[in-house]
Amino acid sequence: MNTTLSTLSSLAIYIALVVVGAIIGSRRQVRSRPLVWLGKLQFVALMILIVTLGVNLGANDEVIASLGQIGLAALVITLFAMAGSLLFLTLLRRFVLRLDHVGLPRGSAQTGQEEKHSAGKADNALTKWIVIAVVLGMLAGRFVLPPAVTVHCGSVITFGLYLLLFLVGMDMGRQGTFLSDVKAAGFQVLLVPVAVGAGSLAFAALAGLLLPLGVKDSMAAAAGLGWYSLAPTLLAPYSLSVSAVSFLSNVMREIFAIVSIPFVAKYVGYVECASLPGAAAMDTVLPVVVGATHERITIYSFTSGVVLSLAVPLLVPAIVALPF
Questions:
Q1: Whose CA is closest to 62, among 221, 228, 212, 213?
Q2: Domain that holds residue 47
Q3: Percent above pLDDT 90 for the chain
Q4: Within 13 Å of residue 167, how many CA atoms lie on the same side as its CB?
Q5: Residues 6+ positions from 224 with CB-CB distance below 8 Å
Q6: What distance in Å separates the CA atoms of residue 18 and residue 296, rounded to the nearest whole number?
Q7: pTM surpassing 0.70?
Q8: How many domains does the chain have?
Q9: Which H or E run includes 118?
């Protein structure tokens, strides 16, 4: 119950920040100005957030200890789950939602113009900076920064996330297409988290056929869908070893998503970027998704993350209760 209330409270804050940012960004006085500093501030804030996430992980003894003990199983489950969610969402986008590479209805006159406008957003430069930020952060958290500093990572991450969500909202407002984007997405946007969740669990089951862990436990580990602070807690009474695999697998999912999103945006599709982080698509990874794609994809990413976050406390116990 407390977990659900905490999730709902966080969602309310996230939504409020995006909406307030969109309202401010849509004002004529704001839209009429170039605001070159907005993009630069977003990039700086994103790098600070990712470095801090790296520090937080590097300072976490559980993460470091798990790497040697259960790293291979967690890696296989993570790669399979991400591949499954990517495949299922690609099929959904192409054959059900009928959207093109940039997330617009097929044949839209805006597609060519937007691809040209966004060509530089999803290049390798963003990936390079993300990888550098994560690695430096983890090394600093593990070998340089004292516990008196790393203990404040949570507060820095929260503040950085709030700032980025507000700036993403401002960008959406300045585009002037927020309401039309919501209308274009429609209720079909709810199919996105269904595809992500189904793909993750289906391919995690396939991974279980290759691992000593088995199908059920592999699915249980993947059912956290990137929420590494909750899923291991839910799994601990069932199995400490599965809980440890789940923890490391979901940590890996967030890191791998941050690194791979620019490539997926460029070579697969904008909407598919929402599949990679799972539940984290609504918060820490949302700015990376938007930075590599377009403000319009916020609707898909945020909605998917919200639904998946609410589903995790139900999915994990349900899989544990399976009679095999």
A1: 228
A2: 2-320
A3: 42
A4: 23
A5: 230, 231, 232, 246, 249, 250, 278, 279, 312, 316
A6: 13
A7: yes
A8: 1
A9: none
Spatial CB neighbours of 173, under 8 Å, sequence gap ≥ 6? 21, 22, 23, 24, 25, 26, 27, 30, 31
* Helix, coil or strand: residue 105: strand
CA distances to 67, 184, 203, 251 from 58, in Å:
11, 41, 29, 11
Closest-CA residue to 18 (of 187, 173, 174)? 173
Spatial contact of 134 and 255, defined as CB atoms under 8 Å apart: yes
Q: pLDDT class for 110, splitting at 50, 70, 90? A: low
Q: Is residue 214 very low, low, confident or very high in pLDDT (cuts 50, 70, 90)?
A: very high
pLDDT (average), residues 96-113:
80
Q: Are 59 and 137 in contact (CB under 8 A)?
A: no
Between residues 3 and 64, the one the model is more confident about: 64
In this prediction, residues 15-30 reach a mean pLDDT of 84
In the chain, what percentage of residues exceed pLDDT 70? 88
